[in-house]
Amino acid sequence: MKKRARFLIGVAVVAVAVGYLMWTGARETMVYYLTPGELMAKVSTDPTFRDMGVKVGARVVPGSLVADTKNLHYRFEVMDIETGTTRFPVSYEGALPDTFTENGDVVVEGRIREDGVFVAMSVLTKCGSRYEAAPEEFAR
Amino acid sequence: MTVLGEYALWIALPISLWGAVLGFAGGATRRGEMVLSSERSVFVVFALLCVASAGIIASFLGDHFEYWYVANYSNRDLATFFKVSGLWAGQRGSLVFWALLLALFSSVTVLLNSRRNREFMPYVSGVFLTILAFFLVVVLFAANPFERLPFAPADGLGMNPQLQTYWMTIHPPTLYLGFTAFSVPFAFAVAALLSGRLDGHWLVTTRRWTLASWFFLANGIIFGMHWAYEELGWGGYWFWDPVENASLLPWLTATAYLHSVMIQENRGMLKMWNMSLVVLTFLLTIFATFLTRSGLIESVHSFVQNKEIGFIFLTFMGGVTAVCTGLIIWRRGSLQSENHIQSFLSREAAFLGNNLILLGAAFAVLWGTLFPLITEGVTGQQIAVGPPFFNQVNIPIGLVLLALTGIGPVIAWRKASRRNLQKNFTLPVVVGAGAVTGLLVAGGRDVYALLTFGISAFVLTIIVREFWKGTQARSRTSREGLPSAFVRLVTQNRRRWGGYIVHVGVVLVFAAFAGQSFDVEVQHSLAPGESATVRSPFGHTYTLTHQGLSSYDAQNMFKVVAALSLSRDGRDVGVLTSEKRYYTTAQQPTTEVGIRSSVFEDLYLILAVVEDIEGVARNDPAAQRATFRILINPLVAWIWYGGLVLTVGALIAIWPEARRARRAEAVPEEGAVREALQAAD
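The joint structure predicted for all components is written out below.
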């Protein structure tokens, strides 16, 4: 029985170590994944939420892209993918991904400033199952 | 041909269902004619799947755009080579391909074992046919590659440009080989549970299959890294993307199983654990296929997901889990351990530690991958964890594992004496500490990188010394020259020495990972004639001078090419190019990066932004400015070298032994004694 207890202690030590790593890792790196509407609702009820880094899945508003390609500074508006409402401007410095298009879906990660501009640290384009064509794409 | 393929699928489903029933029934009632019929069903299903796959390929080659699958993944201009790869380019075809590979392995298994393992084979073919039936149901009812469109379009949508590369044609098949090969150990595990013959026999029978599966998974993952590095063009090779994680999970648990199985063979321990690991790994191969091909994770917010597929997969995985858990509980009496761990300082404990840690890593990766789904279920709010989470958790875990690759092979079984420890570990620890000190003096400050290099040096010292000691001893006793003694040594115990070579490969790959901590990145907007300078961590200075942009039409695409002349420490070393490709079939461009690879560092050039594409197309000299990202990625090449070493090691371990040796290996106790003696001396 003593042997078994020792074995269980070993298991417990590894489990606790991995659990600890996961706990701290998750606490330090997790970000809310929101829609523009959800973000606005959060910020209006709790202004300190502005300090949280968030990921926002949204659609780029057609015709809103202003590009300074020399300094790689971009500004565009995004909106809710489903409803098309709740727009806000996004500012981003750096090269946009190849797959970025107006009216395309993006995930922007960053913070929303006091003045309502979302300062993005990264812009990713969403392509669901990355290499699959969505069925309705064909219909277009 | 294509129509035949569709019929073949429909015929294969009832045959595999019937064959599965006959297999299980024949095993239980010991009726030879049922078993024979079940085994023949395996061959028939394989033949039918060959016809179905040929049908899909024929529909691609013949440009039959009336099929939804062809219309979505091909177009007339697509190169023939990629048309053939259409079989696994998308969800629908790749599920058929999965089934085809499984049927192939099933047939080979039945051919090789129907004489030798009579008591297992009815159940084994029953399990194979059950899995095949499941995939056929998915294909026929939720993802039919032969589904027709109401009209035949003049041309297809074309294949995603990022799939049109050499790496993408070999990466998925390799992974799939790994996934499907693991069905063989799984089938034998279930057969052992059902038949009640739970000694080490089924382990020995499936040893090579497990190794082969592991080998394909490892290579599949590395090919995937290669593809991401060359094709996705953001400078890295691993992003902890759900799809990547999915392929890593079964590899982690398969690695655990490869090690724990040795404890069962040698010491009769961990039987229930091994059984559970086999089932878990099999489930993870199915889960990986499901995750990769259903878009479950990325699709949560907005993308169409295939609900039927999700439902069928989850039902199957739930069913397998329930049945296997039930079987293991039923047979728990025969799965008792024959021995106990005597000391924490023993090979058993080191192997067990390796297992727990690998499982911990798998759990953490799974948790992080599913985190958005979990938090949405619990709080109604999606919370994601990104690459930092995975790195933070897995780097410490990886370092412990790395150390164990050195400790495990030389620490004694049962209980390591003080002398054993001193003798085996003094020199390696000194070398490892020396490496850390040297790097500190040279200016290395990243703790994880220092630890990685230190532990790598420790492990390499142990392995090299093992080879040296073994070779020397052999050459002394058999009076051979050192080279021939070395070859004989390795060929006499391929699994052991092959395993050590695999460990060397793993060390190289880890060192390459640590190289990331020295990454350099700069970004410059350059007009022709302007240059950018970047300094590498190895002290070289690279100067890149923009030579201008050119553009031309190529098959299927329009290209803009930037050429930069490159000098290293003031010496001209050639021209590096990076392209933007505008495929006629895709709305967005893709970037082709330029890579100048050397042993210690890669210079990685990304054409980030072309300011005025229309201007470039008109050959307007004023429209030549472009923005480049220039990266220096130290040690990346070592991943590919490490992968090669790992491949060599795994092949040595898998290669069939001479017939006489094979008979000897069927008696594991003898091996245990030999190894214990070797470790004790």
